[in-house]
Amino acid sequence: MAKAKTQFICSNCGFNSARYLGRCPNCGEWGTFVEEKIQPDNANRKARVGMDGKSAKVEAINSVSLEETPKVATGLQELNRVLGGGVVAGTLILIGGDPGIGKSTLLLQVSGQLSKHGKVLYVTGEESASQVKIRADRLQVGGDDFYLYPETDMGAIKEQVAQLKPDYLIIDSVQTMQEPDLTSPIGSVAQIREVTADLMQIAKTNNISIFIVGHVTKGGVIAGPKILEHMVDTVLYFEGDQHYQYRILRAVKNRFGATNELGIFEMRDQGLHEVANPSEIFLEERLSGATGSAIVAALEGSRPILVELQALVTPSVFGNAQRTATGLDRNRVSLIMAVLEKRTQLLLQNQDAYLKAAGGVKLDEPAIDLAVAVAIASSYQNKGTRPDDVFIGEIGLTGEIRSVADLASRLKEAAKLGFARAIVPKNNLQGMTLPKGLRVLGVATLKEALELALSGD
Ligand SMILES: Nc1ncnc2c1ncn2[C@@H]1O[C@H](COP(=O)(O)OP(=O)(O)OP(=O)(O)O)[C@@H](O)[C@H]1O
Ligand SMILES: [Mg+2]
Questions:
Q1: Sheet of 33-38: strands edge to edge?
Q2: What are phi and psi of 80, to 5 degrees?
Q3: 126 Cβ closer than 6 Å to some ligand 1 atom
Q4: Nearest to residue 396, comparing CAs of 430, 360, 356, 367?
Q5: Residue 187 φ/ψ, nearest 5 degrees
Q6: What pLDDT digit, counting tens, does each position of 282-339 carry?
Q7: 10 Å Cβ neighbour count for 182?
Q8: Average pLDDT of 27-36?
Q9: Are the C-beta atoms of residues 294 and 389 closer than 8 Å to each other?
Q10: Residue of minimum CA distance from atom 6 in ligand 1
Q11: Residue 282 Cα to ligand 1 middle (Å)
Q12: pLDDT tens digits along 179-237
């Protein structure tokens, strides 16, 4: 038998090299090369099939027939939203997330839902069948068409799939699966790539929808080559703060729907519960009329969420003023403070500022600027904001309030939750129909906005 050769693969982009390289010439990342053993006959090991499982043919675009891709809606509305309506047959869905965030819990609940629509095979490479069963009992998940299979060998898994003919396959997790004829260690780039290619073939040839769990690295990206994300149809991230019970499911790639859609869940003893009205939760513990608090209608995907932003501004004791931000971008906070100082004459340079988005959410869109500025000014001047005000707007460097995306749905959400006034960019208001019960005030500058917000009437 010919001797296995060695090659080096960039774990970021999958670029191959015969020798170790410090910097990848393809993607420019440093220190990403890992050593891999390759079998001499690796290249022509298997023939790949087309996306529909048959060998492909050339067709004129005008004569391509449109096939409806029906989506199976699960009983979890939040998941349906993130997937763009439901699960499309024959697709590969990758779910990444931190250890212990609840990936297996989510997929077990999803499996329970899907087993009402078809046969589900749950392959677990990390836990024994009885461990999964204990969790399933706790989550009250079960069903006649729901099968567990503790296995890591792809050969055996393929055999079982051929025999059982499931409609849905769950792989928990891709890093624990292995190709028997590949000598690279489990979890290595070559293994992950081959396993995923195999799963893709299973999905497309048998029209099975496959959910794959992927571990994430310390940096928060899915471990293994970036090409893993390119190969699959949909990439979801399951995020959350260990200190809060809320979990957020986010689509970062979706071939069958919009990305950046959010699904919000709450982790309880009996598993993940859907949160239909996230704004109510994020506003729940708010003190009315407190200083340093401002409500923003942020937009996550197509979904408006009202969140309380809090600021605490205190004189600095030591020379250097501190700026700390939780759930917000610290550079953005510094920039807003500089604009406040220069354009509204608030002397903030010798003040420490601590900012926080309540409830553990992370916000990073520009439309939250105005609420950040109002919270800072309110705390600094020790003047309370009105509890029924909501602030929306991006701040420019000259102190102007710039228009934001989809103001209408933000205002609708604010009106729904009983807010009385919305302070918004003036430019956004042209030709807009405003929701009933909400006074919408357009402002052109930060100064005008602060006068309205902190006038106390
Ligand atoms: N008995 C229990 N009651 C309430 N919550 C529990 C219980 N057991 C586990 N949990 C919750 O479930 C979480 C673990 O969920 P799960 O195993 O689904 O995570 P995971 O993302 O699959 O983790 P891993 O990366 O280790 O596979 C725990 O962090 C905890 O919050
Ligand atoms: Mg798990």
A1: 16-17, 5-10, 33-38
A2: -55, -45
A3: yes
A4: 367
A5: 90, -5
A6: 777 778 778 999 999 998 777 788 999 999 999 998 778 889 999 899 999 999 999 9
A7: 22
A8: 80
A9: yes
A10: 269
A11: 23
A12: 988 888 888 888 888 899 999 999 988 899 999 999 886 666 666 666 788 889 999 98
Question: Taken in order 125, 127, 133, 139, is the CA torsion positive or negative?
Answer: negative
Q: Distance between CA 149 and CA 161 in Å, rounded?
A: 11
Predicted confidence at residue 390, as pLDDT, reads: 95
CA of 26 to the centre of ligand 1 (A): 38
> Is 105 near ligand 1, meaning CB less than 6 Å away?
yes
- Locate all alpha helices (DSSP H) within 53-188, ordered by sequence: 77-83, 103-114, 129-138, 154-164
Non-local CB neighbours of 26 within 8 Å, separated by 6+ positions? 10, 13, 15
pTM: 0.77
- 320-325 long-range contacts, CB within 8 A, separation 24+: 321/348, 321/349, 321/350, 321/351, 321/352, 321/353, 322/352, 322/353, 322/354, 323/352, 323/353, 323/355, 324/353, 324/354, 324/355, 325/354, 325/355, 325/356
How does pLDDT run across 382-437, given as a tens digit for each residue? 999 998 999 999 999 999 999 999 999 999 989 988 899 999 999 999 888 888 88
69-125, pLDDT tens digit by residue?
A: 688 888 899 899 899 889 999 999 999 988 889 999 999 999 999 999 999 999 999
Q: Is 243 in the pocket of ligand 1 (CB under 6 A)?
A: no
What's the pLDDT score for residue 44? 47
Minimum CA distance residue for ligand 1 atom 25:
99
Torsion of CA 404, 410, 412, 413, to 10 degrees: -170
Ligand 1 atom closest to residue 108's alpha carbon, by position in its atom list: 18
Of 148-152, 218-222, 240-244, 420-424, give the lowest mean pLDDT range: 218-222
C-beta of 250 in contact with ligand 1 (< 6 A) = no
Q: How far is CA 61 from CA 70, 204, 302, in A?
A: 22, 22, 32
Shortest-distance atom of ligand 1 to CA 215: 25
* Separation of CA 100 and ligand 1 centre (Å): 5
Return the ligand number nearest the Cα of 124.
2
Structure tokens at 246: 């809320």
Ligand 1 mutation target, pool 135, 213, 267, 268, most atoms within 8 A of CB: 267
Alpha carbon 92 to its chain's center: 17
Instruction: Determine which residue's CA is closest to atom 5 belonging to ligand 1.
Output: 269
Summarize the confidence of residues 247-265 as an average pLDDT. Answer: 84
DSSP 207: T
Ligand 2 centre distance from Cα of residue 131 (Å): 11
- Among all bound ligands, the one having the nearest atom to the CA of 171 is 2
Burial tier of 122 (Cβ tally within 10 Å: 0-12, 13-18, 19+) = buried
